[in-house]
Amino acid sequence: MCTGVRFADSKGNLYFGRNLDWCEHYGEGVVITPRVARIPSPFLGTIEPKHACIGMAIIEAGAPLYFDCANETGLAVAGLNFPGYAVFAPEPVEGTVNLAAYEVPLWIASQFSTVAEVRAALDNVTIVNKAVNDLWAVSPLHWIVGDGTESLVIECEADGMHVYDNGLDVLTNQPPFPWHAENVRNYMHVSCEHPEPVTWTRDTLKAFGTGAGMVGFPGGYDPASRFVRAAFLNANYPAEEGEAANVTRLFRTLEGASMCKGGAKMTDGRYEYTLFSDGFSAATRTYYWCTYEEPARRSACMDDYDLDGAELLRVAAA
Ligand SMILES: C[C@H](CCC(=O)NCCS(=O)(=O)O)[C@H]1CC[C@H]2[C@@H]3[C@H](O)C[C@@H]4C[C@H](O)CC[C@]4(C)[C@H]3C[C@H](O)[C@]12C
C-alpha cells in the first residue's frame, strides 16, 4: 500500500510526501530532470520540461520513470497502486494529448506549476496503456497532484478518466477516491480533544487518559484505515513554523500510516512494508527521503544542482 499527503505552511508553501509500501525495490533513486533534458515519449515525441523536476525514479530508455516528483515552482505528483480499478486507454486517441501511464508524473511536474493548470489540461488528455519497454509492465496506478493551495486525484477506470478535487489532501489505494471521501464520515466522532467527564445513571465516567477521544481510530494497514489515519492526522496536526518543523510534520504524518514488517502479507506470502518515505518542500525546493532500514532523513536541494543541463542527474540511491 502507499499513502500520499499534502499540506502547506502559513506562507502557502507546499509540503508533499508519500510512503512507498511494497515488498521489493526496483533500483530506484533520487533523479533530477533539468530544464534542457529532452525526454523520449512514445506519443509526444519528446517531453521538453518547462520546469526542472526532482523525485524518486528509475531511469529506463532515457526517461525518468518517477514514482513521485515535484518541480521548482511547487507542484508535486505521486503514483499509488490502484489494482482492480485502473484501466488505461488501449490506444492513443487522435486530437488529445496522449500520455503513457509511466510518464504521467514527469509530464505533470515538468509542464505545469499549479493544480488549476493541471485540472484544465487534463480535459484533453488520454492516459494510454503503454509500457516503456518489454522489461516493465504498465503499473495500475492512480495519482495525487498537489500545490501550495490544493490537490486533486486522477483515476482512470473502465468508464474513462475521473479528476476529483481532494479536500482531504491524502490518497491511499483502492477502492476509488469517492469511496474514501465518504468513508471518512464514519470517523467524524474521532477527536484529539480530551473528553470531559460524563454522567451515566449514577456513575461519572472519566477518560482513562490522553487519546480517549481517538477510540475507534482505525489501526489497520488496509487502504481505508490508512486513508482515515492520514486524513485525520493531516487535518489535526497543529500549524508549524519553519522548514524543520514542517518536514517533521510531513514525515510524522506519513509515519502514522506506515507499514511495519509482520503486519500484512501479499498474496505471494511476502510481507509488505514501508520501503521508504519521501517528500518535497517547496519552501526550500528540497527533496527528503528515508528508508525502512535507515530512518535518518537524507535530502537533496534542487538549488545545489545544474537545473539548466541536458542530462538526467541521478543524485542518490534510495
Ligand atoms: C508498487 C508501487 C505502488 C505501491 C502501492 O501503492 N502498493 C499498494 C499495494 S496494494 O496493491 O494496494 O496491495 C508503484 C508506485 C510507482 C510504481 C513505479 C513507477 O510507476 C515507475 C515504473 C513504471 C513501470 O511501468 C513499472 C516499474 C515502475 C518502477 C513502477 C513499479 C511499481 O508499480 C511502483 C513502484
Describe the structure.
The chain is 16% helix and 36% strand. The protein is of the alpha+beta class and 318 residues long. The protein has an 8-stranded antiparallel beta sheet, with helices on one face. The longest helix is centred in the C-terminal third of the chain and has 14 residues, at 223-236. Bound molecules: taurocholic acid.
Provide keyphrases for this structure.
318 residues; alpha+beta; globular; seven-stranded antiparallel beta sheet; Penicillin V Acylase, Chain A; 21 strands; binds taurocholic acid
Outline of this structure?
The protein has an eight-stranded antiparallel sheet with strand order 13-12-11-8-7-6-3-21, covered by helices on one side. Strands 1, 2, 14, 17, 18, 19 and 20 form a seven-stranded antiparallel sheet that branches. Strands 4-5 form a two-stranded antiparallel sheet. It is of the alpha+beta class and 318 residues long.
